[in-house]
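TA notes, week 10

Several of you asked for a full example with nothing omitted. So below is the full record: structure tokens for the whole chain, then the designed sequence directly under it. When grading your own attempts, check the secondary structure regions first.
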């Protein structure tokens, strides 16, 4: 989700995407998300608009091109515990210092075929070194 707090014009830059790719199950060459790719589309919207898209939609960010106004946006990602699209880069020691409920946000993707015997590993409800998202 991108919540645009200022107006955005199509030529301003920021978030770009390729419509329809949320259904594609093909490997993407790195050139697809290069800022000058003519297949990347942009959008315009008034202040306060929210742009919702699935994380599987091919998207990229580009530099902001509007010198008259700063880009002020709020980005948020809502995923169920069954999906994960990014590998986290927090060190294990940082996560271990968090309260247990906060640690649970850093567990790996639930795997229906986990065969380990421990309740912590098979339920994937809590963070542990064996199910971390790293």
């Amino acid at each position: 989700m991108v919540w645009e707090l200022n107006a955005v014009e199509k030529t301003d830059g920021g978030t770009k995407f390729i419509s329809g790719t949320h259904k594609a199950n093909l490997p993407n060459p790195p050139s697809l998300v290069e800022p000058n790719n003519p297949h990347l589309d942009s959008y315009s919207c008034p202040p306060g608009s929210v742009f919702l898209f699935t994380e599987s939609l091919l998207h990229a960010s580009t530099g902001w091109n509007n010198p008259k106004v700063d880009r002020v946006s709020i980005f948020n990602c809502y995923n169920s515990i069954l999906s994960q699209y990014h590998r986290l880069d927090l060190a294990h020691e940082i996560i271990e210092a968090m309260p247990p409920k906060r640690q649970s946000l850093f567990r790996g993707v639930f795997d229906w075929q986990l065969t380990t015997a421990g309740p912590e590993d098979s339920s994937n409800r809590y963070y542990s070194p064996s199910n971390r998202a790293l």
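The chain has a mean pLDDT of 77. Use that as a sanity check on your answer.
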